[in-house]
Amino acid sequence: MSEAKRKFWAFAIVATLVLISVATYAYHEFYLYLSVYLWFGFIYGMCLQYGRFCFSSAFRDLFAVGVPRMAVGIMIAIAFFALVGAFVSATGLSTFHSAPIGLHAVIAGFIFGVGMCFAGGCASGSMYKTGEGNMNAALVVVSISVTQAVFVDIGGWANALVPASWAKSASEKGLPASINVADGWVDQYLAGYVWDQPVLSFATMLGWTDQSVMGAFLGNFLVGVALPGAALLVVVYFFWSRRTFMKKRLAAASARPRLTDELAGYWAMVVASKRTAIAGLALGIAAGLHMYASQGLRVKYGVRNAGPLLERMGFDFGLSVNGTVFDPGYWYVTTQEAQWVGWVFHKLGWNQMDNIFFGFNNGIPNPLINPADWMSIALFGGAAVMALLHNEFKFKKPTLETAIWAIIGGALMGIGSRLGLGCNVGAFFVRVSQGDPSGWVFGIGMVGGAYLGVKFFNWWTERRMARQFAATIT
Amino acid sequence: MRNVLWTIFAIVGGIMGFLMGYATAPMIESGVLTGQGAKRATKIEAGKELEQFYKDLYKER
Amino acid sequence: MKFEKMSEGHYLLDVKGYVCPHPQLYTKKALERLKPGEMLELQFDNPSSGESIATMCDNTGDEILDRKQEAGLFVWHVRKT
Fold it and tell me: What are B's interface residues with A at a Cβ cutoff of 8 A?
């Protein structure tokens, strides 16, 4: 593509999004609520592409090729999101709610971790890579979406796999009859198990509230994010970054590194990839402002969820029995992907409103007016604009081999994200940043899964390489 | 290419500014940001003359 | 994936079409097999792999001689040390 052409397409994408925002706002004020999602999605997409932000590589590249770049970048993003988030929640404006914590988060993280290794990118990574023109990543996105919509509505034979205690507990929750909680594995998992798990935050564990200054800054930010994050980076530094740095810094092999050398090495690791660090910083700040902006519009319109807004605008299809739709008020990836497919399935005659995920919580509004979908669509756009302007846009067709990895990986991520109530963004990045210990628990599982995935690919690539090498040499 | 990038940053920045302002105004108005909570200054001070005026309304001439 | 000997001490690794983690894994495996001083021409089109490969070479001491980028295709020359 010529430079002029790339410029044209970049502007065309931005202009289209501006036009959507302006036209819908002119039609009805409430559409501004969707535009908030749209523009933050666009910024997330730009940041992700610029920083080559890939959560899966954070752990995978450590194990596979010993590169700590992304692990550092993510900790930077988490730290800044946590700092902005602490301001937002200390003023009582946070849209965040902790998730139930338990063993399920480790298992979910593990499945997700294996999946993202196979797919070659996490849920959000696959989205920005789709924006780069990578059709393999698009296949991952499709696979995640379809798997989720199928998985949350599996009943019938799967009901036999539900432990009796879950079924009993779920039936006692008093859910509306339309949900039909006795049918559906995920329904009984959610209502009978997950909902019974404790909901914690570092602030409440230390005896403060999330809305207090002490709780937000000391509890959730310092104890929940800054200290464990810094400690994690120390581990990463000693295992993966220290040796090379010291080899360069201490020319004489006999010299012993002093504390100042160690600190310099630590800092050098943090700023090693400028791109990643800058993107992490911008992502963190944007994610915090997103919560602020969403909350402001909720105050303005007098709602707590976009459901009533959609209803007032005349869209009453696809709202959950509570009248709500999926509307986190912050960065989220997987649920809206499931909603696209859930909506299509429902229109094709497969009742998707009789499960908790869609029917009770998130609804399946028309994708065209689904707030979180506006974020995802714009995320593709933001990534595409950045890729076009840096001449990295290339239309890539999948091969059979990569397509198989993409579908398997996407399916595993879909299942993992439904079990863990979110993906690497919703269940890990956002929760860790907001002082929810269940985010770290999901992260532990994710690291374990990534380790296993890397082991597999190490074996696979080694085998293929050995064969090619033998053929080359003879 | 750099100019294009900065132009796009400017457009996005402008939209962001609008959105943040739009979100901040209701929060100030409702007292969420100023920390006043529900204590909105709606009470109108009734001066002495005004009280006298209302009393006088009932007086028969 | 294509790994070929182009001439004496000069190898080609073509991992176009692959996404993470394949390009960096294949690069690592290829470099492990080369003898010091030999050169690897690396072709990939997954931008995020570039960052990882660059850091990896920095860690192992292998030298990246040049990086060309044209319309989403990256061609790098790496000399094993």
Answer: 1, 4-5, 8, 11-12, 15-16, 19-20, 22-27, 30, 32-33, 35
* For residue C71, pLDDT beyond 90: no
Q: Which residues contact A12 (CB under 8 A, 6 or more apart)?
A: none
| Residue numbers of the domain that contains A139 | 3-472
Chains C and A make contact, 3+ CB pairs within 8 Å: yes
CB contact under 8 A, A136 and C19: yes
Residue owning tokens 């698009």: A138
Q: What is the pLDDT of residues A167-184, one digit of tens each?
A: 999 988 888 888 888 889
Instruction: Tell me if residue C57 is catalytic.
Output: no
At A215, the amino acid letter reads G
Find residues 238-297 of chain A whose CB sits inside 8 Å of chain B: 289, 292-297
Higher local confidence (pLDDT), A460 or A88: A460
C7 vs A: CB within 8 A: no
Mean pLDDT on A49-53: 84
The CB-side HSE value for B21 (13 A sphere, CA atoms) comes to 6
d(CA A173, CA A196): 10
**Residues A455, A468: Cα–Cα separation, whole Å:** 20
Range A18-39 average pLDDT: 94
Across the interface, of A3, A32, A389, the residue whose CB is closest to B22 is A32
